[in-house]
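SAMPLE LOG
Freezer: B-3
Tube label: C17
Construct: single chain, 747 aa
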Amino acid sequence: MALYSWSRGAAVLKICGLVSAAFLVLAAAAPAPAWTVSPVQAVQAPNGTLVADSCPAPGTCMAVGSYHVRSGASATLAELWNGSAWKALPTPNPSGGHGSVLTAVSCQGASACTAVGSYANGQGTALALAETWNGTGWQIRPAPNPAGSFGSYLTGVSCAAATACTAVGYYYTQSFEDGAQAFAESWNGTAWTLRQVPADGLAPMFLYAVSCTSPGACVAVGSYNGPLGSGLPLAEVWNGTSWTMQAPAVPNGGFAELTGVSCTSATTCTAVGNYSQNHKPFAELALAESWNGTTWAIQPTPDPGGFADLTAVSCAAAIACTAVGWAGASFSSQHALAEVWDGTAWAAQAAARPPGAAQSMLAGVSCTAAGTCAAAGSGFYANPGALHTLAEAQQGPAWAIQATASPRGAIGNSATANLIYPPLSGVSCTTATSCVAVGSMAASWNGTAWTTLALARPAGASKLTLASVSCAAASTCMAVGSYDDASGAQLPLAESWNGSRWRVETAAEPAGATGAGLGGVSCTGASACEAVGGYIGTSGPGQTLAEAWNGATWSIQATVNPGVRSDGLSGVSCTAANACTAVGFEDGQGPLAEGWNGSTWTQQPTPRALPLTSVSCTAASACTAVGDGGLHPEAGTWNGTTWTLKRLPAPTGTQGTFLNDVSCAAPSQCTAVGFYFSGSNSGFEATLAEAWNGTAWTIQPTPKEPHGEVGGLLGVSCTGSACTAVGGSGPMISYYGVDVPLAEQRS
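STRUCTURE (predicted):
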């Protein structure tokens, strides 16, 4: 994973622990100005990802996954290998759905395949999806969902015969806070039937993959939360009548999960996954285990250095297994990984890297004989920023790439499987009819329509994102963010807009930094901008960062780091070149605020509370800041001497609210935007806007997301009572985040 993105958009796209509260603050009832959607055209390009494959015979393989159609919704994808070429096949998607994916496939022959996955219905609830292939076409086969489920996902399937398949997955009850439970289904050639998986008091509990050697002999693997809250590997065995939990071996680390399994007999299985060493976050290492019918034992795997993850495995024999996944010096520099088991030890093989791809990964593998395997996955291409389907074939020790289809559609921010880059995360308006918005793309608003703008790219850049923009005039804007270089290191990014084109304005990099980014910018003139962010370096695990633009160069300014670690400064607002206020979060201390007087940054005392993400000042002594709030968002006001924090109203039934940006046209005229977790929508996000009239904050209705049930507003800019807000929207079922740019106006 790349370093923290230093953008307000990071909050809207991560699963967070939510703080409970025993009381509710109600918004004052009053008619609110209407927000309306103004469509922004998403970038269209080939895209797609394959996550599983099955080869019933040499020269015959089926791979499944998903891609994004023009609207941004995810759609099912299946491709067939006939021994010489891959061909995309038409696949059905449930009527009225807002996105669907296929996540696993099992074939008994060239004309007998079963695939499973999930889709979002019209209300945004995830439901189980199953389809069968008869050699001519794919057909949806209705799959039941567990009673009381509020989100069901089938993630693995294995067929011992064309009329005997077992699928596994997990579902949620009421909300994400209740934790997931594992479930299974059986296919008899006519209908699917639910098979209860005992919870044994464990939650959350996930099953990811299954392997069956006969209708009455299956092994499924996944993970569950252990007594200390860390993930532990999980295995369940099916004997034809019931599921029984087994205890896989636990590596010496703080987290482990099994994501792939392959059995050659009822008592001979190999499972793979990953674990973190010594409780280090994001320090993933490859994990392999063997099952002898009685116990699980860890098999040592090669250490490629850095990070590694084995996602799937296929065994042609007990002494001939191939596992695939990814490895890299960091999450942002990952590439396809393959390892083979010869009955004695695992050995690494050189998986092929797609030419021109900044990243690649293999998610599924199927072997018809020892050393004869096919693998499927995806590769990330930095320009224009999209995942493309990937297939590789193994012949002995060598892997070769096979050409696959990547259907054309919206790519939005589906640019990486590890970190989500919002399509639009910041906006700046000089008038109600003149705005510039930025994110992983850029666009301008002329009062009638949005026009996509081509961003500049630093040499060798991948995964570029701009978090914030500030316009001193309609044709004079500065945007800041971050990008990854060819080695995977994150660097600060700044670009200027002159009304015709974007130009990279090289941002300063702190000495000794191992990763840095800028999250907020404010300009009082063409040659007077302040940008803030954070970095990781030798002086500490997290440091605040501020840079000044003089019209020609960026220079670093000394900032305050009062605690052991800072999560950086995420927002800044200047009313003059020598009067700026920046906000952020100091780990373990609460909100962080600093003021700039033209020569030094000085910490401003803040009450202990949740993080502040954005600030807007109408005068040096009149600022409003907003931030995360658990069940309720927070707002702070600065009077030149002290900060006062206030709890804002929250939507009814919310499980968590977050305000990402605020814009004040006057001290008593502010608008804040963000998102909230909707309890009626399985914990997914809906847009949120709140307005301050000098007396109270009130919630304003925002339109339902036009591209699905997941949406968030990340940036807002107001000129008087007219405001423009931007963010992203996408189908709940999408595994790669919010995909389509979203813009809304309030007049």
